[in-house]
Amino acid sequence: MYRVKEAFYTLQGEGAQAGRAAVFCRFSKCNLWNGREADRMAAVCNFCDTDFVGTDGQNGGRFETATGLADHIAALWPDAPGRPYVVCTGGEPLLQLDEALIEALHDRGFEVGVETNGTLPAPAGIDWLCVSPKANAPVVIRQCDELKLVYPQPLAPPEAFENIQARHFFLSPMASPSEPASGEDTVKQSNTRRATDYCLAHPRWRLTLQMHKLLGID
């Protein structure tokens, strides 16, 4: 069974695929935080700003088969020219994504992208793999299309991941999930400046901003 928090059609907001139309399939559950606010500070990843708990989001639900979920995702793609693209995210999608679902999505013409923390092996057949490492979480994926590091993480400096083989290296400025709006804006602006300065000093890395939030879309 696949448990999906939400699924929706939007534009990819970050990284090398930014601006591309995609169906986002957000799987429930993560192996680095249970999603409960009371447990945030004890979690391996304590800065997540995403709700991935349960199956009650937009177009969310439980799906018994790979073909059932693939049909559900395909129904969200418009009847228009352009290769269908799905981004499997979470939570941690590799807790659930398997070769059967990837094959079912390919059968429906989809290119399959994945956004993962990199702590679990990736199944075969993924077309675009984005790894976003977290401090104190060993990365087992050593090759990917893009590495996207939330910055700054004191225990996860960019240089710790430069031995991962990736086509693209991105820094994404960290926002605070717990500050009030004005405070969060100040934190994000400060971290954006830090990330900008790091990219200028280390040009292998590129800055990526959350375009979907700037545009006010999902």
Distance between the termini: 26 Å
Number of helices: 4
Strands in their spatial order, largest beta sheet: 3-1-2-4-5-6-7-8-9
How large is the share of residues in beta strands? 25-35%
Which structural class is indicated by helix and strand composition? alpha/beta
Structurally, the number of domains stands at 1
Radius of gyration: 17 Å
What would the principal axes of the Cα set say about the shape? globular
Task: Give the total of beta strands.
Answer: 9
User: Low-confidence parts lasting 5 or more residues at pLDDT below 50?
Assistant: 178-182
Main β sheet profile:
9 strands, mixed
Quaternary form: single chain
CATH architecture: Alpha-Beta Barrel
Round the mean pLDDT to the nearest integer and report it. Answer: 94
Can you offer a commentary on this structure?
- With 218 residues, this protein is α/β, with parallel strands linked by helices.
- It has a single domain, classed as TIM Barrel, CATH 3.20.20.
- The chain is 20% helix and 25% strand.
- It has 4 helices and 9 strands; from the N terminus they run βββαβαββββαβα.
- It has helices at residues 66-74, 99-107, 181-201, 211-215; strands at residues 2-11, 21-27, 61-63, 85-89, 111-116, 128-131, 143-151, 165-173, 206-207.
- A 9-stranded mixed sheet has the order 3-1-2-4-5-6-7-8-9.
- α1 (66-74) crosses α2 (99-107).
- Mean pLDDT is 94; it is low at 178-182.
